[in-house]
Amino acid sequence: MVQRNMSSSLKSFFPILNDLLLKEINELHSFIDILRKEEQALIGGRIEEIDLYSSDKLRLIEVLTQLSNQRDEYLKGQGINLDENSINSWLEKQPSDQLSTKEAWNDLLNLARTVRQQNHSNGLIIASRLQHHQRALAALHSAAGNVSCYGPKGQAYI
Predict the structure, then answer these.
(1) Are 28 and 64 within 8 A, CB to CB?
(2) Can you give the pTM of this predicted structure?
(3) pLDDT per residue of the chain (158 residues) written in tens, 0 to 9
């Protein structure tokens, strides 16, 4: 009897978890699209677009945080530890008919890695642009006769 209740409980559990994961996945796809557009705007020096993408990113971060919190609360409510290894281990022990939930979880993890990589790439572009502009500004000040000083990391202070 207990086993039947547990099975019934799991049957209702997976559609809810799957729905939460799919919502996060959709929002992560939107976030990746914005990051890629931001990358193109950064490369092209289109500052006005970057401002728009920044506000879009902030909005999506709020949505993703809410969805992640909902997922975490749901998993905690089911007695599941929230670290990635525990969730992976728990999913591996589930019946094979729950493959869509396992796939959704793996998709979510892969998309999160893609977001981190794309965000890091955009950060490198920004750092490179900033360094270029700092050097150009230092060169202009030097040409105008202003004395430049250098900070502990070699960056020019004017």
Answers:
(1) yes
(2) 0.76
(3) 223 333 444 455 788 899 999 999 999 999 999 999 999 999 998 989 999 999 999 999 999 999 999 999 999 988 889 999 999 888 888 877 777 888 999 999 999 999 999 999 999 998 887 787 778 777 776 777 765 566 667 776 55
In this structure, the dihedral spanned by the alpha carbons of residues 70, 76, 78 and 83, taken in order and rounded to 10 degrees, is 100
DSSP for 104-148 reads HHHHHHHHHHHHHHHHHHHHHHHHHHHHHHHHHHHHHHHHTTPPP
Element (H, E) at 69: helix 47-77
DSSP string, 16-62: HHHHHHHHHHHHHHHHHHHHHHHHHHHHHT-HHHHHHHHHHHHHHHH
CATH number of 2-157: 1.20.58.300
How far apart are alpha carbons 137 and 46 in whole angstroms?
Answer: 20
Domain ranges of the chain: 2-157
CA distances from 67 to 17, 33, 53, 77 (A): 11, 18, 21, 15
